[in-house]
Write a structure and sequence with these properties.
- Its EC number is 6.1.1.23.
- One of its GO terms (cellular component) is cytoplasm.
- It is an enzyme of class 6 (ligase).
- It is built from 17 helices and 22 strands.
- By secondary structure, it is α+β, with helices and mostly antiparallel strands.
- The strands form five sheets. It has an eight-stranded mixed beta sheet with strand order 6-9-10-22-21-20-17-11, with helices on both faces. A five-stranded mixed β-barrel has the order 1-2-3-5-4.
- Strand 18 and strand 19 form a beta hairpin.
- The chain has three domains: about 90 residues, OB fold (Dihydrolipoamide Acetyltransferase, E2P), CATH 2.40.50; about 200 residues, Bira Bifunctional Protein, Domain 2 (BirA Bifunctional Protein, domain 2); about 130 residues, GAD-like domain (Gyrase A, domain 2).
- It is about 30% helix and about 25% strand.
- The protein starts with 19 loop residues before the first strand and ends in a 10-residue tail after the last helix.
- The longest helix is centred in the N-terminal third of the chain and has 23 residues.
- The protein is globular.
C-alpha cells in the first residue's frame, strides 16, 4: 500500500465496502457520540466520515486529534445504515472504520476557523491565507478559477487563436494608470516598467504576421484598490486579430464568452444575442457605460413636459439649451414612503433631493400625487405617465440640469430604485456591447484634451475627422463588453497609420518626436506594411467573480493584497537593504512625516 494513501477522501463509494484502504488529509471536525468517535477527514478531493470505537487500538490516539491536524488513517470501508446515509456527500453511503492512525502534522490553535463560512477579519484571513484557502467556498472558487482559465484556453485555441507570451519587463506606456517601475542595475538611473497591458506587443505581433494572438496575460497597475480590481496585478484574456472590422471581433468573441458563461453558469440563463448600445445612448438610458441590463428601468428625457410649466425650478433650468430633465420610471414604487426614502437617499449623496410623482387611483380616476404633479397640472402629469408607460402604483423620479454633470447620479438612482423595489433579476447573466466611445475627453484640471480610452484606437472618420471635426465629437472604433453592471472586456480597432497616429497624439499635446520616442517600436512598425487589426482584453478576475457569485475579487484570488496594497502573508512591500540600493545606484528620498 502507498505510504500515505490508497484513495483520496472523495473516492470511496458503496462498491468499496469490505476493502482496507488508507486515507490522508486534514481533520475537518471531530464528534464524540458517547463512546464512538467520528472524524471527518478532508482533502482537496472531498470528505470521508471515519469512525473509531474504544475497542480499536487507534482509539487512544484518535482522542488526541484536533481540527486541522494532518493525519493518515488506515481502516475498513463499511456501508452506512439506511437512516445514516448522507445524500449531500458523494462518500455519504460509506464510512471508514479506523484501525490505525498516524499524525503527520499537528496544528497549533487556529487563528481563524476553517470549518464553516463565518465572517472573519480580513487582516487575519490574509495573514493566514494558507488556512483561509482550506475553507470550502474559497477553495472551490480557486478550483473554479483554474477551470475557467483552462476553458478560455481551450475555446480560444478552438477558434483559431495561438497563445504567445509577451515580455514582463518593458517600457512605460500610457494605459491610464501609474506604472510599477523596476530599476535597472546595469543601466544606472533607468527603469523598466511592468506592463499595464501587452498592448504594444500584441499589435507588433500583428505587424509580424501572426494573425490571431491570445494570452492569459498578467497586468500590473499601481492604482488604488477597489472591489472589482485588486491592487497591483490582475489577469486578462488578451487577444488581437488581423484584417478585421469591429464587427468581426464581436462575432468571433461573442460565442467564446457566451459559451464560457453557459459552461459555468450552473443553469442560470445567459444572453444569446448581445445588444450593441452606443455609448451616448447608454449614458442617456442607464446613466452608465456599464449598465446592468437585469434592471428593467430605462431613463427617458422628459424636458418638454416641464418647459414653461408651473414647476419653476425645472422650467428656469430649461431656459438654457444644454439643460434637460430626465425621468427614472419606477414600476411598483408608487407610495409616498418609498418616494420619501429615495429623496432621503439622494440627499445623503449630496444632492438637494430627488423630485417625484407617484400615481394612485382615486375612485375611478388615476391621478398623480406629490409636489411636482401639483405644480405642473393634470394634463402634463398624464402626458408624463403615458410617455413613461406607468400605471396605478408606479412612480417616476426626476433629475434636471446639465446631463454631463448629473448622469452618474441619475444612474445611481436608477440602480437604487431597481434594487430596492426588487426589480432586478439576479439569477441571470445579461451581456451587451457598449460601442462608439468618445475618442477624446476634456481634462478640466489641466485644461487640455486627453484620450478618453485607448490612445491606439482608430478614430471614426480617420484623418478627415481629426483635421475638420470638433475633437470632443469624434467617436472611436472602441467597444466594451458589459455583464450585470461590470465592464468585463474592452477593445478597439487599432490606428495602424503612422500619420494618423501622430495627428491623434498632437491633439493631446505630444509632437511627432514625442510619439517616436515614446512609442518608437510601434511607430516604426506601422511604416512597414501594417495590416488593419483590432482586438480586446477580457478581465479574467471579474468574469470569475461573476460566475462564482463573489462580491470581492479577493474571494477568487490565491494570495491577494489588502486594501492598502500590502501582502500580509509574505510581508511585502519591504524596505530594501543598503547593499541593494548601492547595486541599483539609488538613494531614498522619504516623505516628511
Amino acid at each position: 500500500m502507498h505510504r500515505y494513501r490508497s484513495h483520496t477522501c472523495g473516492d470511496l463509494r458503496a462498491t468499496h465496502v469490505g476493502e482496507t484502504v488508507r486515507l490522508s488529509g486534514w481533520v475537518h471536525r471531530v464528534r464524540d457520540h458517547g463512546g464512538l468517535l467520528f472524524i471527518d477527514l478532508r482533502d482537496h478531493y472531498g470528505m470521508t466520515q471515519c469512525v473509531v470505537d474504544p475497542d480499536s487500538a487507534a482509539f487512544k490516539l484518535a482522542e488526541t486529534v484536533r481540527s486541522e491536524w494532518c493525519i493518515r488513517i488506515d481502516g475498513e470501508v463499511k456501508a452506512r445504515t439506511a437512516e445514516t446515509v448522507n445524500s449531500n456527500l458523494p462518500t455519504g453511503e460509506i464510512e471508514l472504520f479506523i484501525r490505525d492512525i498516524e499524525i503527520l502534522g499537528a496544528s497549533k490553535e487556529l487563528p481563524l476557523p476553517v470549518f464553516g463560512e463565518q465572517e472573519y477579519p480580513e487582516d487575519i484571513r490574509l495573514t493566514y491565507r494558507f488556512l483561509d484557502l482550506r475553507r470550502e467556498t474559497l477553495h472551490k472558487n480557486i478550483v473554479k478559477r483554474t477551470q475557467v482559465i483552462a476553458a478560455m484556453r481551450r475555446e480560444m485555441t478552438k477558434t483559431g487563436f495561438t497563445e504567445y507570451s509577451t515580455p514582463i519587463l518593458t517600457a512605460s506606456s500610457p494605459e491610464g494608470a501609474r506604472d510599477f517601475l523596476v530599476p535597472s542595475r546595469i543601466h544606472a538611473g533607468t527603469f523598466y516598467a511592468l506592463p499595464q497591458a501587452p498592448q504594444q506587443y500584441k499589435q507588433l505581433l500583428m505587424m509580424a504576421g501572426f494573425d490571431r494572438y491570445f494570452q492569459i496575460a498578467p497586468c500590473f497597475r499601481d492604482e488604488d484598490p477597489r472591489a472589482d480590481r485588486l491592487p497591483g496585478e490582475f489577469y486578462q484574456l488578451d487577444l488581437e486579430m488581423s484584417f478585421v472590422t469591429q464587427e468581426d471581433v464581436w462575432t468571433t468573441m461573442e460565442p467564446v464568452i457566451r459559451g464560457l458563461f453557459e459552461e459555468f453558469a450552473e443553469g442560470k440563463p445567459v444572453t444569446q444575442e448581445f445588444r450593441r448600445i452606443a455609448y451616448d445612448d447608454s449614458i442617456r438610458m442607464y446613466g452608465s457605460d456599464k449598465p446592468d441590463l437585469r434592471n428593467p428601468i430605462v431613463m427617458q428625457e422628459v424636458s418638454e413636459h416641464f418647459k414653461g410649466s408651473g414647476f419653476k425650478i425645472f422650467a428656469r433650468m430649461l431656459e438654457e439649451d444644454k439643460n434637460q430633465v430626465w425621468a427614472i420610471p419606477a414600476k411598483t414604487g408608487g407610495s409616498r414612503a418609498f418616494c420619501d426614502r429615495m429623496n432621503s437617499w439622494a440627499q445623503g449623496q449630496g444632492q438637494p433631493g430627488l423630485g417625484y410623482i407617484f400615481w394612485r387611483k382615486e375612485g375611478d380616476k388615476l391621478e398623480g400625487a406629490g409636489p411636482i404633479a401639483k405644480n405642473i397640472g393634470e394634463e402634463r402629469t398624464e402626458a408624463l405617465r403615458q410617455q413613461l408607460g406607468l400605471e396605478d402604483g408606479d412612480a417616476a423620479f426626476f433629475v434636471a440640469g446639465d446631463p454631463s454633470k448629473f448622469y452618474k447620479f441619475a444612474g445611481e438612482a436608477r440602480t437604487r430604485a431597481g434594487e430596492d423595489l426588487d426589480l432586478v433579476d439576479r439569477d441571470r447573466f445579461e451581456l451587451c456591447w457598449i460601442v462608439d466611445f468618445p475618442f477624446y475627453e476634456w481634462n478640466e484640471d489641466e485644461k487640455k484634451l486627453d484620450f478618453a480610452h485607448n490612445p491606439f484606437s482608430m478614430p471614426q472618420g480617420g484623418m478627415d475627422a481629426l483635421e475638420n471635426q470638433d475633437p470632443l465629437t469624434i467617436k472611436a472604433f472602441q467597444y466594451d463588453m458589459v455583464c450585470n453592471g461590470f465592464e468585463i472586456a474592452s477593445g478597439s480597432i487599432r490606428n495602424q497609420s503612422p500619420d494618423l497616429m501622430v495627428k491623434a497624439f498632437e491633439k493631446v499635446g505630444l509632437s511627432a518626436q514625442d510619439v517616436e520616442e515614446r512609442f518608437g517600436g510601434l511607430y516604426r512598425a506601422f511604416q512597414y506594411g501594417a495590416p488593419p487589426h483590432g482586438g480586446m482584453a477580457a478581465g479574467v478576475d471579474r468574469i470569475i467573480m461573476l460566475l462564482v457569485g463573489a462580491k470581492n475579487l479577493r474571494e477568487i484570488s490565491l494570495f491577494p493584497m489588502n486594501q492598502q496594497a500590502q501582502d500580509l502573508l509574505m510581508g511585502a512591500p519591504t524596505p530594501p537593504t543598503q547593499a541593494q540600493l548601492r547595486e541599483l545606484h539609488l538613494r531614498l528620498n522619504m516623505p516628511a512625516n
